[in-house]
Amino acid sequence: MAIAIRLTRGGAKKRPFYRIVVADSRAPRDGRFIEKLGTYNPLLPKDSAERVTLDAERARHWLSVGAQPSDRVARFLDAAGLLARAQKVNLKKGEPGAKARERTEMRARKLAEAEEAAAEAAAAPVVEEVAVVEEAAADPAAQAPAAAEVALEEPADGKTGG
Fold it and tell me: Is residue 20 part of a domain?
């Protein structure tokens, strides 16, 4: 039989209150237990003495017999000086998942492609504009009809159509 030191929930809806109990690990969370070791009231302030009450001597006994505390109870026992709890470090907690990494890579690729296209577009029109300017300078007669077309497109009264 595996023995666990864990919490059982009591209290009303949205008003939790927990008992710290020693129970068979196969028993339901709020089911049968062997012994009550203390209480935990998460609604009280963290500096309150009544937030966690614990029978340290009985907890020490059950730990010596081989009872395994849950993570939350291990924190309480560590605070009481009964158990040295190893700090858990999850280095991958802040990393994005596989799909998020794929989306980031796609955005980076699209951005790089857009920058390349913008660089090519910025380099190409300069050459075309120079060619257009050279043609206009070579043929002064071509400039006059272009000015007449612009004058025809705009109404004489200054109003725009629409």
Answer: yes
Does 157 fall in a domain? no
Q: How far apart are alpha carbons 74 and 6 in whole angstroms?
A: 9
Phi first, then psi: what are they for 37, rounded to 5°?
-105, -20
**Which phi and psi (to 5°) does residue 68 adopt?**
-100, 120
Q: Are residues 76 and 102 in the same domain?
A: no
Per-residue confidence at 52, pLDDT binned at 50, 70, 90? very high
Identify the domain containing residue 118 by its residue range.
91-137
Give per-residue pLDDT as tens, 117-161. Answer: 888 888 775 555 555 556 656 655 555 555 555 555 555 565 665
Segment among 43-57, 81-95, 105-119, 142-156 with least mean pLDDT? 142-156
Do 8 and 28 fall into the same domain?
A: yes
Based on the fold, state whether residues 41 and 12 are members of the same structural domain.
yes
Per the structure, how many domains does the chain have?
2
Q: What is the pLDDT of residues 9-19, one digit of tens each?
A: 999 999 999 99
- Give the helix, strand, coil percentages of the chain, each rounded to 5: 45, 20, 35
Write the burial class of residue 153 (CB in 10 Å: 0-12 exposed, 13-18 middle, 19+ buried): exposed
Q: Are residues 27 and 96 in the same domain?
A: no
C-alpha to C-alpha distance for 125 and 131, rounded to whole angstroms: 10
